[in-house]
Amino acid sequence: MLYDKLQDAISFINKNVDFKPHVGIIPGTGLNGILDEIKVEECIPYAEIPHFPIPTVISHDGQLIFGTYRGVSIAALKGRFHFYEGIEHEMVTFGVRILAMLGIKQLLITNITGSLNPVFKVGDLILVRDHINLQSSNPLRGVNDDRLGPRFPSMLRAYDPSLQKIAHQVAHSLSIPLQEGVYVSMNGPSLETPAEYNFLSIIGGDIVGMSTVSEVIVARQHGLETLVISMVSNKCLPIEELKEDSIEIILKNVSQAAPKMKMIIDGIVDHLK
Fold first, then answer.
1. Number of domains present in the structure of the chain
2. Which residues contact 38 (CB under 8 A, 6 or more apart)?
3. Residue 228 structural domain
4. How far is the C-alpha of 185 from the C-alpha of 200, rounded, in Å?
5. Which candidate, 4, 241, 17, 273, places its Cα nearest to that of 115?
6. Terminal-to-terminal C-alpha distance of the chain
7. How far apart are CA 259 and CA 273, in angstroms?
8. Tens digit of pLDDT for each residue in 158-185?
9. pTM of the predicted model, to two decimals?
10. What is the DSSP letter of 35?
């Protein structure tokens, strides 16, 4: 059972780490620089933690990091998981449940996305205010274990309004534009077709990616205050302007805009002291 696997993992972590994190961080592809300032207290490779999956995606190292970030005790997942890796949603979100069981109160998530909104440009930062889940499953599917949270958690305020307010204040103080949008989550790993981009825009999507939503659903079940900021790594509309993207191009785009993301995350963490 999932709960038993989580208990095995938590027992191992607690035997090896004497540290109580307050905030959890999950950086997206190419955004691990967010973690560079952490004063690391402990670092455990995922491979050493019982039942913990191993990421297979480039730039996802696979380490659970404990330390102090701008005076705040944090635990960070350096390496996230995706459904397209062949991992079931129960394990895609295993790390989020571990963070929750370690006692974090807030969860900060970043990711990279394609822009479905013609107004959004490559390098723009988008505060996720809501999502549309088009992945083929849900991490809460199956027999519910009440020890992990309610069977039917409300998703009305899955993206915490208080944290969103802080993010806007920080962005304004830094003169960094921070727009808002609806994130659409797809299975991947192939990028979407032009017809799919058009469809996703019609149904209300502003940005599209292959992660995050399952993490947010599980975080909501655990009662975590969650904030998600996306970075636009490639444009998906208007269709006549589309160019063929590669992971190399996407990572180059991310590296150029990553300092803005780090500045905003720094400011948000300062407010959580």
1. 1
2. 65, 67, 68, 69, 74, 76
3. 2-271
4. 10
5. 241
6. 36
7. 22
8. 999 999 999 999 999 999 999 999 999 9
9. 0.95
10. G
